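User:
I study polymers; will you set down one protein's sequence and backbone structure tokens?

Assistant:
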Amino acid sequence: MSEKYDVIIIGAGPAGYVAAIRAAQLGLKTACIDDFVGKDGKPALGGTCLNVGCIPSKALLDSSKQFHNLTHAFEAHGISAKDAKMDVGTMVGRKDKIVKQFTGGITSLFKANKVTAIAGFATLNADRVVSVKDAEGKSTDYTATNVIIATGSVPIELPFAKFDGKHIVDNAGALDFSAPPKRLGVIGAGVIGLELGSVWKRLGSEVTILEALPDFLAAADADIAKVAAREFKKQGLDIRLGAKLGKAEVGKKGVTLTYTDAKGEQTLEVDKLLVAVGRRAATKGLLGDNTGVKLDDRGRVEVDEHNWTGVEGVWAAGDCVRGPMLAHKGSEEGIAVAELIAGKAGHVNLDTIPWVIYTEPELAWVGQTEAQVKEAGIPYKTGSFPFAAIGRAVAMNETAGQVKVIAHAETDRILGVHMVGPVVSELIAEAVVTMEFKGSAEDLARIVHAHPTLSEAVHEAALAVDKRAIHKAN
């Protein structure tokens, strides 16, 4: 007789573990199944984000930023440091300690909320029976009134550049280099490629990024992407657009890349290659026979606007369903589903999900880009303001970037806000709140912002929508 739960969650990443905690808070008997194994060989909660994604990458980004500032930026403040060195082993060890702290934190939260953690690979069968195969190959069945699929995503592997963990790596491998590669090749100028490329560039690597698309950061607003590209070029990141990789051959001297661009076939020699061309839903082996759950042509679980699969008691959230593959989006979906199961109101607005790239300068945006608004035929107006005119940014010696606000020309309702600059990962929250409450550019313009702060750039950009910015010419 299999053990029965009110809710079983498959996956303990940002969508899964958060859904488990919320379900337990609501009085539901809850279990969460996950097969992730940490560097120490033991089961680890938190999924990709916590173990080999969001958190460890930010730890390395911060360490590398501190080193870069010490060797390049502090002189402007009157601070000098000769012969500064980076101990990469210590840096990676610090990262691992942070990961361990947070994975352990989830374990403690599960215990506090009486969530049962089950280690193993889960397969959903008909009638909400979940079969779990543990590390020894033993299979155990569990049943539930409701099942939440939150299996996350995995890196896309190129058939001609397969991961070997040594010369050709994914995001996890690029977090654990023992030393900065002399020459680092990166395939893909997206979030992962730019962030990890930045880490190793700051530590001395010669970084070349090959991007197949002709436009840099096509998902971002063009004005913001243009500023970011200029800053990355200043930092020495060699970003080659319209460069399509055709072959990657590992040899004694490293990896030889063959790619084509506007000039024809090119070759590039690198010591390490990070392949960061995107991620796909981790649904391989997830579904048994006759579950009724459907996958789309990209392997994602099909769901409606409430994250319901159409099968009684089966839901899905996070990277394995439609929408942006972002940890915070997954977490909010997990909470919404848990609340819907408990008979409460649960909702996630996919139109106001913030995006962030933690490079230096940071990029962040929410809502539509100017190109999207124009293509939709919506009448609009824009306002922008540079950080170079913000006192706090100048005092920090971080003046690169700007804030751009897009508003409806007739209603003044904010359609999108786009930023590149210092700490914009935090500033974007104001724009998200404003848009959630159907706010206008006038609303942002009328709100008092503390002086001197970076948030004044948001204020001035909102004022600029109606050509009434104070600290720049309109």
Remarks:
- The longest helix spans residues 88-112.
- The mean pLDDT is 97.
